[in-house]
Design a protein that fits this description.
A: 12 helices; B: 35% helix
Chain lengths: 226, 216
């Protein structure tokens, strides 16, 4: 594969086909954990890890798996990988494990992962599949962090609160107070706020895309006229 | 016919292969992580108990000197209360009760309540809960200092009327947007103190369980 197509993989995974904002897969974790930046980032990193390794495994096994059994095989692969990640975090990243709790095993139910296995890794070589996993995971992680930031600022007036849970003492100093003496805005922290915030983010992304297209169109016309 | 059967067998065999590989991987990682996980869990309990009572104040093994009991009046919801006893040279110093507050916003709030021999609280900590993130979770010591406010309190400090959140006319703060959670915690701690006042010798003198297994 050429460099150009790797660039395309990243552009698709992070922007054009962003799992959280365009394809709208994996909404359950996306909406559930994003009440703070740190929670979103933690789950985002675990999801990147899962996507990279599940894409690698599916790509390596793509010659072996016949079409009729591919879905159960993907589920087996993904469930095994997530359990491995959960056990490793439980053993060596205990604090982060405590923070994310139930949402680590729930990564298995993120349709984005089986989606990438089916749509990409099952028909591409390992290196490209790993790249795709990384790009898709990064896109999902960015959506989680953006949503977390939006809800945390509106709901609590802070950013990166509780970063100490993830980065130790170093992280404790990362907290930013954006709105001092914020009384707290309950709606943003609760599930309805998650849906509304996600709607705002999608609208924002679409606005950027439309503006970009309009500029290209008008730019092309100017070029033709001159 | 034969080829159709062959293809089914091939599918089944490759699926089984994936399952075997996955299981092998899991068994390996489980073996690898079992000891560190048990160590982490044990350390986590010791750290939590250590937040309530300084290791200098006792000389017994807290995790050996424990027993459990049930009392539906003081500790409702069918919960099993685990009691850790801290002693210095055999003399009672404090108990730490592992209880749950059942009137929370969402499910049980698991608590450790440490009570000194003289009936004052040496501290309260939340071990796990499912309260609303960002609102009710301020009961966690990592997120808010609220839970530290129990230190040094006793059944008569504040007087009985004060053992409630401010909205109910008591002395304990509630959180913005979350009254139910702190109300449940205050209630559970008060009941634990009442139980301690009535059953102090039971808590200190019940024999330790021979096998402190996984009790929650």
């Amino acid at each position: 594969m050429s460099n150009a197509s790797y660039r395309q993989i990243f552009a698709d995974g992070i922007w054009h086909r962003n799992t959280g904002l365009v394809v709208l897969l994996g909404l359950c974790p996306l909406l559930a954990v994003t009440n703070t930046v740190v929670n979103g980032l933690g789950l985002g990193l675990a999801t990147i890890l899962t996507l990279v390794f599940s894409n690698l495994a599916v790509s390596l096994a793509r010659g072996l798996l016949r079409p009729e059994i591919r879905i159960p095989a993907y589920v087996l692969i993904i469930a095994s990988l997530v359990t491995v990640i959960q056990l490793l975090m439980h053993a060596w990243l205990y604090d982060l494990y405590r923070v994310l709790g139930i949402f680590i095993p729930l990564i298995v139910t993120n349709c984005a992962i089986i989606g990438r296995a089916e749509a990409f890794a099952s028909r591409n070589p390992p290196l490209a599949s790993v790249t795709d996993g990384l790009a898709t995971g990064l896109g999902f992680c960015l959506a989680l962090v953006a949503l977390g930031a939006l809800r945390e600022v509106i709901g609590r007036g802070t950013l990166m609160s509780q970063a100490g849970l993830m980065f130790g003492d170093l992280g404790a100093s990362l907290q930013l107070t954006i709105i001092p003496n914020h009384p707290g805005f309950l709606l943003a922290m609760l599930p309805p706020g998650a849906f509304i915030s996600l709607g705002l983010l999608i609208a924002g992304k679409n606005w950027l895309d439309t503006r970009h297209t309009m500029r290209q169109v008008s730019g092309g016309q100017t070029a033709k006229n001159s | 016919m034969l080829s159709a059967r062959n293809s089914i067998f091939r599918s089944a065999a490759s699926l089984a292969l994936v399952a075997v590989l996955g299981t092998t991987l899991l068994v390996g990682v489980d073996r690898l992580t079992k000891a560190p996980i048990a160590e982490q869990e044990k350390q986590a309990i010791l750290d939590q108990l250590g937040q309530l009572i300084s290791p200098d104040l006792y000389d017994n093994e807290l995790q050996q000197d424990l027993f459990s009991f049930q009392d539906e009046f003081y500790f409702p919801g069918g919960q099993t209360v685990v009691t850790y006893r801290a002693r210095l040279e055999g003399k009672a110093v404090a108990v730490i009760l592992k209880i749950a507050a059942v009137n929370g916003y969402n499910g049980k709030i698991n608590l450790l309540v440490g009570i000194n021999e003289n009936g004052t609280l040496c501290g309260v900590r939340v071990t796990s809960h499912q309260e609303t993130p960002g609102l009710g979770d301020a009961i966690e010591v990592e997120k808010n200092d609220w839970i530290l406010g129990f230190f040094g309190r006793a059944l008569d400090k504040p007087p009985p009327d004060g053992w409630a959140v401010r909205r109910d006319g008591g002395e304990f703060d509630q959180f913005t947007g979350a009254t139910v959670t702190p109300r449940a915690v205050v209630e559970a701690v008060r009941l634990a103190l009442e139980f301690f006042a009535d059953h102090k010798s039971f808590l200190f003198e019940s024999p330790a369980e021979s096998d402190p297994g996984e009790k929650t």
